[in-house]
Write a structure and sequence with these properties.
The protein is α/β, with parallel strands linked by helices. It contains 15 helices and 17 strands.
Amino acid sequence: MIFAHGGLLSDGELPHVLAHLEEEINGTRQTRTLPAERVIDALDGLGKRLSAGEFDALLARYLPAGTGPEALLPLLDRKSLEEKLRVELGPEPFAPRPMEGTVTRTEPLGTLFHVTAGNVPGLPVYSAVEGLLTGNVNLVKLPHGDKGLTLAALSLLTDAEPALADFLYAFDLPSSDRESLVALAALADGVVTWGGDGAVAAVRALAPAGCRLIEWGHRLSFAYIAGYEDRERELAGLARNIIGTGQRLCSSCQVIFLDTEDQETAERFCRAFLPVLEAESLRRSGPGALAQSTLCGYTAFLERAAGGLSAGERHYPGRGCSVTLRPDRELELSPMEGNVLVKALPRRELLGTLRRQKGRLQTAGLLCARGEREELTQLLCRAGVTRITRAGRMSETFPGEGHDGEYHLRRYVRMVDVERSLRERNNGTRPAMQPSPAVFEFSPAGNRSPSTCRCPERPAWAGPVSADRI
């Protein structure tokens, strides 16, 4: 399916849509602007309806089992969205800033082509919302297995605010349809890609020269244990992250590093941690999930055994989980699904080891005595880690935090310097100019500035919108 002009179209309309898309995007960018306040109004309204349970049946249809709407709420909350803009782009995000001889304006990058991964439900919507907040036209390639969640969400969003329709397009294209992907990339001022090395390399090959590449690639996260403040509580929190995320997120714990070089100490940890991990697995997982996780762990171990296990490697299987002790000290991807790796890594070797994964580091779940936390935090920062949390909060989000060491919205805008006239420079006055197209004003509800948007017109070739669009 295709999402365009606020409605769903069949895949057979793809040639027609692509043939007209450049003209439509140019028309939108020439004649229409998208204030961030209008985007926030629409998202906040949907959030209130979500909190009231209006979309429970819809979410049950599209979200994976065990996934609730809680993770979506920060994306649909006025306060969180306003704070995101303030933190990432400044207290007056789109106000012209007078400089010596010029005025600097923050403008949308233009058109963003989002190529998203399927490991996080709702990720295509999240990526598109960031593009809307910065006033961009957004073209979204849906990931395999999206199951209609993104199309349903975009339909609800444009129903709530029809002015967003000309800034949102989505395409359910296979990665093998290179011709269509190249055509979409050719329209973009920036290509946003979420995925592993293969996906990032493929998108780089699509992007034309001069197009800004915005890569949010896969990252590796780990726990580092150098002691405890509350051993039982902290290990239980670590187990919750491993089992609760299935180790599928960039912030999920893949390896538990121990601040020791003694293998016997590491073996004792594995034997002690396995019951904690197993208890969490039994608490959260049904019979099918337990079997799948157990099979995943056994398969990974047998594949390594077939190639010859390293001396000192130990495998501790549990119900729906496992702990594997490996003698090397490298950060790597685990077998996932509750099957975690454990390695000894004394702190004196921590920085050098992690630097071998530079550019891939994300979250460190740090367990240590209170008096050592600042010292180890500094060491992890110098190694290149971009998030440091308690072990049980590795995959939680925090207001105002960056992503992989950056703020997204800064990548989706451009700075435009406008020369001031001699009179303006001499008088110290601002030039007479319109505010940036994505002007954002924090004003009381019911007293907002008139919008510069107008509702889009649906082209005749697209036909009528189906009444059953979701």
